[in-house]
UniProtKB/TrEMBL annotation:
Penicillin-binding protein transpeptidase domain residues: 403-652
Species whose genome carries this gene: Rhodoferax lacus
Record has Lyase as a keyword: no
Molecular function terms, GO-annotated: penicillin binding; peptidoglycan glycosyltransferase activity; serine-type D-Ala-D-Ala carboxypeptidase activity
Descriptive protein name: Penicillin-binding protein 1A
SUPFAM superfamilies the record matches: beta-lactamase/transpeptidase-like, Lysozyme-like
Biological processes annotated in GO: cell wall organization; peptidoglycan biosynthetic process; proteolysis; regulation of cell shape; response to antibiotic
Amino acid sequence: MGAGSALAATPLDLPNLDALVDYRPKIPLRVYSSEGVLIGEFGQERREFIAIKDIPLIQKQALLAIEDSRFYEHGGVDFKGVARAVIADLTGGLKQGASTITMQVARDFFLTKDKLFSRKLTEVMLAYKIERTLTKDQILELYMNQVYLGQRAYGFSSAARIYFGKSLKDVTIAQAAMLAGLPQAPSTVNPVANPKRAQARQRLVLKRMRDLGYITEAQQKAAQVEDLHVRMEGQSYSAHAQFVAEMVRQAMVAQFKDEAYTRGISVTTTIVNAEQEAAYDAVRRNVLAYDQRHGYRGAEASITLPAEGVERQKLIEATLAQHPPSDKMLAAVATAVTPQSLRAQLSNGDEVVLAADGLRRASAALSPKAPAALKLKPGSVIRVQQDSKGRWAITQIPNVGAAFVALNNQTGAYRALVGGFDFGSSQFNHVTQAWRQPGSAMKPFIYSAALEKGFGPGSQINDAPLTLSGAETGGQPWTPQNDDDVYEGPITLRHALAMSKNVAAVRLLRAITPQYAHDFLPRFGLDPAKHPLNYTLALGTGSVTPLQMAGAYSVFANGGFQIAPYLIQKVVDARGAMLFEAKPAALAQESDRVLDARNAFVTTSMLHEVTVSGTAASTQKLGRPDLAGKTGTSSEAFDGWFAGFSGATTAVAWMGYDEPQSLGGREFGATLALPIWSDFMATALKGKPVYQMPQPAGVSQVGGDWVYDEFQGPAAAPAVDLDLLQRLKDMFGVKP
């Protein structure tokens, strides 16, 4: 009887192999854009299963060359290697593993890694049992999907994506060799944790591949000098959609509990990748522009630097670990500071030097006379950013909040969502969670209500100073004011809305009554309980979320229907079985109408005027005749808004501090939120045909503007109430 047969016959209480035969790896929850771009991943193990037939030959050869070159020849155990390992164990320490791939599968699935003779014997016996139960390809498939390869990556497919940002089928010889070298010491010898040691291991793999004839000498040399393009953060997604991914994670955990992280659920969202990137860039760019307008605030933190040496380096590294990057904005510790120059160290140990233009933003903080709270000095934790030409400049992470959301106003599908400036700094999703005053962005709903009372865009209203008595307000007398303190006298409603005239809006609300306007709000999905039942309703002193505003403006955009925003398009499990698929309700069911089509059409025409001649006229740079929307600035400029739409896209941008405070005396919705909206729309509308809302029946142009047919002529004037005379006097500026 041979040695192999004797070992195979040894009676041991071996576990059954159900875990191998019915292999069910812990595959994380993955979130994708509508086009299949990965935007998020959740789970302790980053893993994705790949069939052996889909693993490229070069990757299999690289692995076998370094781990088990006789894999397809032996019966599960390499006896010469095992003998050396047993002798080493008996004489003082298992210094030579000699484990075949089959033995490693046995250990990884069923055993500990304790260096004991008994464990080694069981490993050998299990290897034989596995070889009798599974084919060689099945064993190799298990190993290449199960093995840990560092950076929470399990399996070669996941590792290729995490380290190189590509599919396993696309790896080069050099990258395949790098991956093949990882199983030996995945946590400490990988290209992120220790690039030099990982490269040394890779070169050993390449040498073995050359020795075995898998590659030529020329291929070996080329691979040794190839730039691997390692993603040094160890994880990167093709889209900046962390807030979206978190929304999906919460929904999946609510549905599947802890299994959401292990059963390989894949969620396809409605997010459009190009539009998501445009939204992210627009928010970041314009929040930074606002922050730059309002001055440098000083260091993020400050430490006392020890003298040169190991302690100093450890303190810098520990400090910077508490200040992770915000996209390309990197934390650094200042090591030398003068009014003209600054040296700082990055987390990777590199030193950067800033001077002249790179320090211009922080010039006040470098002055010898700078206040202590502002002054930069050695030990200050700052932010730096490199431009396209490699030049470093000082910057800072803004402390202002922001939000952006875009919906398909026909279906309710999210197209883009950015819940804040930096998800890493704060996971608070301003799109769905921030209840803020809408300011003048509320006015279109008042104007829409007025259309049902017989007013039209051409109706005249007096833009003149107004004081409401205590009897009318139910409290103290109130004198609303226009933001610019300019009053134009009698003007049309169209012009009043375009120029966001506060006094005109209050007069209009007075004419239709606050109660009527308040009762009108649910048509747009707005919660009346969140809005005051008084004259300040016209100035937006209630509370809304950006998502709520996007839904409300969509009622105008789609011709009079409420939409139900939805984010998840479909959910499938690891085997591709459909667990859920969204079926959005179709519009244009008249029974579902919440707003007269004529109202949506006429209000849209007024919102279009806002973008042509009003507070949002800067949108004309987009060169589109089909834009409509409204700026909004709340009291004391605590909030800046723009809500608008074009074609099938409704989008809302907002900016404000989490702890409400003024954004600045010269800041308005037009300077804060509108630039975000415009930058996004430049991408979202590119190449799309101009949309013209169809004119519904029952509305005609009279005197150059739109009027409901039933309100044409004196016989169809709005109903008269007992207070009409006083209101008419106020409208036309006649003193009683």
